[in-house]
Amino acid sequence: MRILVVEDDQNLNRQLTDTLKEAGYVVDQAFNGEEGHYLGECEPYDAVVLDIGLPEMDGITVLEKWREAGKKMPVLILTARDRWSDKVAGIDAGADDYVTKPFHMEEVQARLRALIRRAAGHATSEISCGPVRLDTKSSKVTVEGSTLKLTSHEFRLLSYLMHHMGQVVSRTELVEHMYDQDFDRDSNTIEVFVGRLRKKMGVDMIETVRGLGYRIQPPSNG
């Protein structure tokens, strides 16, 4: 899952980025509204953390422009403690949730997990597909009760497919949501990770849709 953090406070931006990376997300950073707006327009994100008080273009304007352009990614806004009007303006502009400064990093993570899974149509922190269970809170995957040992990239790939269960996901889409802007998108690493996942899972659930991409769904005999 790929997250954009738009926050002009260098230290807070770094803390958010480091925390989210440790949680397994791919994170892009922006330090002003202009840069944040540009990245949100050009790159596909699973969620955005957006500060309201940004230089060059304020967060409300950034959000309004995204929504006017048809961008539907979930947006979590950061607001000042005593500015209730910012919360109202943010929600009215199209924000999906908000966190008030100062905040605990755990709260940001929990709210992002909720926004991402709701956007994919999942109501709880556990996503199930046949014998496979993915816990978005603990980043734990089990198959018929046995825990799988996955690398961070294998987990990101499986998580994205599970969030979009039953849908055909292209290789390009997987690359865009698993890696940052600088990744070599012509490499064949997606195919390698799919092969590893199939072996580790031991169940025939990741289907190759020729010429289109991959789809995960419960095995036909399940």
Any chance you could write out the topology, listing elements then pairs?
Layout: E1 2-6, H1 10-22, E2 26-30, H2 33-42, E3 47-51, H3 59-68, E4 75-79, H4 84-93, E5 97-100, H5 105-119, E6 126-129, E7 132-135, E8 140-143, E9 146-147, H6 152-163, H7 171-178, H8 189-201, E10 206-209, E11 213-216
Parallel strand pairs: 1-2, 1-3, 3-4, 4-5
Antiparallel strand pairs: 6-7, 7-8, 8-9, 10-11
Report the sheet-strand fraction.
15-25%
Structural class by SSE content:
alpha/beta
In which order are the strands of the major sheet placed? 2-1-3-4-5
Helix content: 40-55%
Number of strands: 11
How large, in whole angstroms, is the Cα Rg? 18 Å
Which architecture name of the largest domain does CATH use?
3-Layer(aba) Sandwich
- Return the string of H and E elements: EHEHEHEHEHEEEEHHHEE
Count the helices. How many? 8
Give the overall shape: globular
Question: Could you give a short account of the major beta sheet?
Answer: 5 strands, parallel
Per CATH, the class of the largest domain reads: Alpha Beta
Q: CATH superfamily of the largest domain, please?
A: Response regulator
**Spatial gap, N to C terminus:** 28 Å
GO biological process, one term: regulation of DNA-templated transcription
Protein name: Response regulator transcription factor
GO cellular component, one term: cytosol
GO molecular function, one term: phosphorelay response regulator activity
Description:
- The protein has a 5-stranded parallel beta sheet, with helices on both faces. Strands 6-7-8-9 form a 4-stranded antiparallel beta sheet, with helices on one face. A two-stranded antiparallel ribbon has the order 10-11.
- It contains 8 helices and 11 strands.
- The longest helix is centred in the middle third of the chain and has 15 residues, at 105-119.
- It folds into 2 domains: 2-119, Response regulator (Rossmann fold, 3-Layer(aba) Sandwich); 126-216, Orthogonal Bundle (Arc Repressor Mutant, subunit A), CATH 1.10.10.
- The protein has helices at 10-22, 33-42, 59-68, 84-93, 105-119, 152-163, 171-178, 189-201; strands spanning 2-6, 26-30, 47-51, 75-79, 97-100, 126-129, 132-135, 140-143, 146-147, 206-209, 213-216.
- Helix 2 runs parallel beside helix 3 (59-68).
- The protein is globular.
- With 222 residues, it is α/β, with parallel strands linked by helices.
